Amino acid sequence: MLVNLLVLILGAGLISELVPKNRLPVLWSLFSSAAVLYFIYKLSQLGMSPDIYVNYPWLKIPNLSINLEIGINSLNVCLVFVLLILALLSLMQNTFGTETAKNSLNGLILFNLLSALMLVFANNYIQMLVAVGACDVLVFSTINNVNAKKKYIYANFLADIGLVSIFAVILGHGGGLELKDLGDYSQFGHHKDFVAILLLLCIFIKSGLFLFHGTYTDIASLGFNRLNFVLFAATPLIGYLVFLKTEALLSISSYSYPLLKMFSLASVAWGVFGVLAIDHIKQKSVYFALMFWGAVYAFAAFGCRLEILDFAGFLLSAFLFGQVLMLFYTAASNETNISEMGGFIKNLKFMFVLLLVVLAAYFDVLLSLQTKNIWLTWAYILLFSLASAHVLSQILLGESRADERVQAMLKNPSPALWGPVAVAAAMLCWHFREQFLWLAAVSACWLMLFIFRPLRRLDKWYENEDLQEADYFSTAYELLIITPVKVIGRLLWLAVDFVFIERTIINSVQNALTFLIFLLRRLHSGTTLRSLLFVLFGFAVIYAVWRFGGR
User: Fold this and answer.
1) Same domain, residue pair 397 and 497
2) Which of 210, 466, 495, 542 is 20 to 30 A (C-alpha) from 76?
3) Which helix (H) or strand (E) holds 54?
4) Is 52 in a helix, a strand, or coil?
5) How much is the pLDDT for 120?
6) Which stretch of DSSP H or E encloses residue 499?
7) Cα-based angle 12, 13, 14 (whole degrees, multiple of 5)
8) What's the pLDDT at 29?
9) According to the model, what pLDDT value does residue 436 have?
10) Which of 320, 318, 145, 158 is nearest to 217 (CA)?
């Protein structure tokens, strides 16, 4: 049954890619959505404790026999459900949104779903690497901006090389291919710090944590639905799945978790700064995602890694919040700057209600995480509340700065766009409904922050062009890495090419050739002495051949 469902998703994806992009896009989008919805329905019939396992021979190389493993059980069923729901929500938004290449994007979403599922099912290193590489290629195809493509594929190509290098080191020291045996590497392996830290860097690049988030800030030029799909259902999620699969390797180095703590907390902090400082609403969505992924890794870094159900709820709620930002963007006729919005609550009362439902779902999930780490949970609730209330108050309550076109066309999006978001948020609220009193208190505090806007003075940052246009990390990369490399290259050129090669080797060869030419000219002069000299030289050659040639 499971294989048939996966083949159904594969077939729907192939149809979406083969059908021309302008041929009945809504019909084929609904077909793709129906395929995913049917998968969800059949999986829900099995309940939360299914036990399906399929094993296919894949590689039969001597000493490297690999099977393709597909299995759903009580440990990963929640993750499978949330992957399906994320794909369904992306497809539904794509169906009735403004995307021009609907069929192509639908196919990429379905193929990415299959690749992510193969990674969830993976129990060996080869299947994990293939799934990660496939997701990278699919996201590369999803990004329809040339500069963003270059930066994305460069970073993720390096990360993929790092993952392959880790596999080579483990296999070279007698390790196996099964992921469950990675913990044994601490007993027989070498270069343990190298393996653990390289793995951590690969995960940071994949998930776009602090210092590595430039890959995702550059894709803010994408359509909003593509952006949310990439941020929550594609490569950053793949990075976290790799973390879950290989976490046993991190414990072999004493540097791993201190680094993870530092980068995860820095990601949350930098995400808060970006949300408050940057005017562009799509970039704000990227920074909200950076806050989310930083928080997810922070829980793991401090020894309270989220259970699969908690992570699934947290991921879905963060995605829904990103979808709400997209709906405000759509309602404002695709206005990208927050500073050009304001006073929208008069026309978007229904959107405000939808926002409250999504926030209730978000806070419900967060409050359920108190048992993991109460300090991390409440710190994130505080930071997220401050950041989200500041941004949304600027959109809904702030002084109106929208132009006449935006004001004239301002209205709630169609039910086809907000309906799936509302249903998913209501499902989350229903599932995580046990913290009603805490939810009421947190929601009341958020409303107070929303109304009074204690951070309103930060609005002036939107008018700072240097702050809005500056790319600090690209500048730092240019100054700290590229410029020193250029300087060193120039010095090496002067020292090696100009001084050693040109002045020493080339001049010496030139002088030697000049001397040989002089000798040959003198030897070939037409005198009796020169002729006798050549005859003697010929006899010397004959003697040498006779004396040594027979041996």
Assistant:
1) no
2) 210
3) strand 52-61
4) strand
5) 93
6) none
7) 95
8) 87
9) 82
10) 145
Q: How far apart are CA 105 and CA 115, in angstroms?
A: 15
What is the model's pLDDT at position 354? 94
Residue reference for tokens 């041929």: 23
Name the residue range of residue 97's domain.
Answer: 1-121
DSSP string, 308-354: HHHHHHHHHHHHHHHHHHHHHHHHTTT--BGGG---GGGT-HHHHHH
- Whole-angstrom CA distances from 499 to 378, 430, 486, 508 are 63, 75, 18, 12
Select from 38, 85, 218 the least CA-distant residue to 144: 218
Give me the pLDDT at residue 18, please.
Answer: 86
Q: CA-to-CA distance for 501 and 263, rounded, in angstroms?
A: 45
Please give the single-letter amino acid code of residue 397: L
- pTM of the predicted model as reported, rounded to 2 decimal places: 0.85
Integer Cα distance of 418 and 329 in angstroms: 13
Residues 6+ apart with CB under 8 A from 476: none
The pLDDT value recorded for residue 312 is 93
Q: pLDDT value at position 486?
A: 67
Would you state the pLDDT for residue 447?
Answer: 95
411 lies in some domain: yes
Q: Which pair of structure tokens corresponds to residue 174? A: 């007698």
Same domain for 379 and 515, yes or no, is no
Q: What is the pLDDT of residue 169?
A: 85
In DSSP notation, 59-71 reads: EEETTEEEEEEEE
Residue 172: count of CB within 10 angstroms of its CB: 11
Asked if 317 and 456 sit in the same domain, the reply is yes
Same domain, 371 and 326: yes
513 and 441 in a single domain? The answer is no
**Per-residue confidence (pLDDT) for residue 298, from 0 to 100:** 95
Q: Which H/E stretch holds residue 234?
A: none
- CA distances to 102, 130, 150, 227, 398 from 94, rounded to whole Å, are 6, 27, 25, 12, 30
Residue 153 included in any domain: no
The rounded distance, in Å, linking the Cα atoms of 498 and 404 is 64
Residues 429 and 515 in one domain: no
Q: For position 213, what pLDDT does the model report?
A: 84
Which residue numbers in the chain have pLDDT < 70? 21-22, 62-63, 174-175, 189, 470-483, 485-486, 489, 492-503, 519-520, 522-528, 530, 549-551
Strands 52-61 and 64-72: antiparallel
**What is the per-residue pLDDT for 313?**
93
Helix (H) or strand (E) holding 272: helix 256-277
Find out whether 115 and 131 touch, Cβ atoms under 8 Å.
yes
Q: CA 163 to CA 129: how far, in whole Å? A: 7
